[in-house]
Amino acid sequence: MMRPVTFATGMSIALATAFSAQARDATVGMQLEPPHLDPTSAAAGAIDQVLYSNVFEGLTRFSSDGSVVPGLAESWEVSDDGVIYTFTLREGVTFHDGTSFDASDVVFTLDRARGPDSTNAQKGLFANIAGVQAVNDRTVVITLNEPQGAFLFNLAWGDAVIVAPESIEDIKSNPIGTGAFRFADWKQGDSITLVRNDDYWGTPAALDGATFKFISAPTAAFAAMMAEDVDAFYGYPAPENLAQFDADPRFTVLAGNTEGETILAMNNKLPPFDNKLVRQAVSHAIDRSAIIDGAMFGYGTPIGSHFAPHNPAYVDLTGNSAYDPEKAKALLAEAGFPDGFSTTLKLPPPSYARRGGEIIAAQLRAVGIEAEISNLEWAQWLEQAFKGYDYGMTIVSHTEPMDIGIYARPGYYFQYDNLDFQKLMAEFEVENDPDMRTEMLQKAQTIISEDYVNAYLFQLAQTSVVNAKLEGIWADAPTQAVDLTGVRWVD
To answer: How large is the average pLDDT for residues 328-357?
Structure first.
């Protein structure tokens, strides 16, 4: 892509102006392509990465530091008993098809998300809502069954963005939101293009448009960046190249935090993983440092539970599953598998899964567990593992913010069913005292760590490579988003 250059002659100035206009677009590389474009009906993080904040907005939203700030709601009031939230909506907001945004759209969105036919991947976020009422076009009252300290946080998720009934039928292929960019085109298997929304209610985007280019192979990602065919690669998939990019003045390497707990998930209702001793053996067979060094070239922080180390409530529980292959063998023998067993290891496309899977399979083989690797495309993984429970083990990074509550869902894909944990999370949801919430989170981390629900590997680092003249790409990833609303070219 050409960059702005200053020339002396009139003709050159005209050419420079044209090149400058061209440079107001940006091309962003991503490894995974969304299966469709409705963030309110799928678990795939790639949907939010393209659309969150750019195309769709919620009543609240996450900022770059993870804090919750106003979105389509400019303000709100909470009743003294903590169960009634009165939201005042922004004035003059329109959807990209020209229809007006008002309180009825909020009612439609939340009723759809929590309804009996809802396919929302995070339907539990809305379970505490007793009713949603449009008082007038700019006022919405949401009544909860019980106080919920995380309610505004929940509304900031991509699964809670506001959609309109007028455009819902085609949302998976033609997403229409209220954001700073409009959807323009999807070349399946290749790219998605957005253009600036000139009628945006807030601060307009500096970019004229953006193209998300889907490049799954790490070698192709490297070639595209070096040739400057893409201006940024979000979640760069080949960490072995980062030092080379860091030494090249054309690029900036961003290394930040994510909410991505990377786990070796085990199917808790599939024998032999329904046996805690087996899950514990797997956890002690894993050398996290070797995985971080071998698959991620040192980028990543070991974890011992499903919780981000940068969160103030974090407890270091890595000692519960320290690398100890002899202990793993003893636990397998105690569980009735002195000669080990065979199982499946189904891997989605990200390099942390594919590369990490090869290392983990070798580590498990050393204690007698034969893991047959199947490399799946993202849609296959969602169908087989996430929806179909058709797997023994799998590797995935959970990038949703503070999502330990998924362990309170017996139907979630690793099928963990602990009534005590479910009760704890139900109490956490309605607790407002910050100290009590911290104590509950720490207890929750400890329960799932000591139950060895999954083998907890590492917190995924957010590593991106960006053209040095492009600023505003988030270094950290407090949610699954490539937020381009504040991105601009600089000389």
So the answer is: 96
* Rounded Cα–Cα distance for residues 93 and 201 (Å): 5
Tell me if 483 sits within 8 A of 64, measured CB to CB: yes
CB count in 10 Å sphere of residue 203: 9
* Half-sphere exposure of residue 150: CA atoms within 13 angstroms, side-chain side: 22
Give the residue carrying structure tokens 């963005």.
161
pTM more than 0.70: yes
Q: Give the residue among 209, 212, 173, 195 at the shortest CA–CA distance from 32.
A: 212
Residues written for the chain: 491
Residues sharing a CB contact under 8 Å with residue 330, sequence separation 6 or more, in sequence order: none
| Percent of residues in the chain assigned helix, strand, coil, to nearest 5 | 30, 25, 45
CB 414 within 8 A of CB 453: yes
Return the closest-CA partner of residue 40 out of 162, 178, 169: 162
- Average of pLDDT values for 451-471? 96
Cα atoms in the Cβ-side hemisphere of radius 13 Å centred on 276: 9
The 10s digit of each residue's pLDDT in 301-312 is 999 999 999 888
164-170 mean pLDDT: 95
Cβ within 8 Å of residue 158, ≥6 positions away: 39, 47, 48, 51, 52, 56, 58, 479, 480, 481
Residue with structure tokens 């899950």? Answer: 279
Res. 181 pLDDT band, cuts 50 70 90:
very high
Helix (H, G, I), strand (E, B) or coil at 272: coil
Q: How many Å apart are CA 393 and CA 414, to the nearest integer?
A: 9
